[in-house]
Design goal:
Helices cover about 35% and strands about 25% of the residues. With about 170 residues, the protein is of the alpha/beta class. It has a 7-stranded mixed sheet with strand order 6-5-4-1-2-3-7, with helices on both faces. The protein is globular and about 45 Å long. It starts with a helix and ends in a 5-residue tail after the last helix. The relative contact order is 0.21.
Length: about 170
Amino acid sequence: MFLDGDEWAARFESFRREAWRLETLPEYRVSQEAEEIRAFLAGERIDPHAYSNEYTDNLKRLRREGKSKGRVHIVTRPLSDYLRFEFMYYEPHVWAGEEIRIMDVTGRPNPFKEVQDFWMFDRSEVVLMHYEADGTQISREVFEGDVTPYLEYQRIALAESVPFEEYVKGLDV
């Protein structure tokens, strides 16, 4: 089953305990971000201490409700322009309650080389994220099989990654 619009958005409102994502790409092409990326590349930056929007407000609400939202992003250095842009927003997202971790596979084997991006809800439902090679999203599909391999992917990703704030210490991003 493919998910769009309201059906997809409902997943983020109806989970009971945890929404978790594995991100494997160095770039995601999201049309809504195009202008912000151009501004970033031109030198504009947000103030992470003052930044707030609907997403950060939602993260704070989830925390108050005892829910968690997290991700592990697989990266290699040098970081792509997109990752440097995304990292600018990760800081306020972490402060708002998102559990963001980074797994740097520079110079070592990537155990997720053949694994596609996915979201997992309450450790029981997996939604596969389908992308073109350039990072343009094609579709989202509810995985119909046994989620055990995805639980193992999550375990490995969490074990081999570091918290975002630890990763960026000393990096010029």
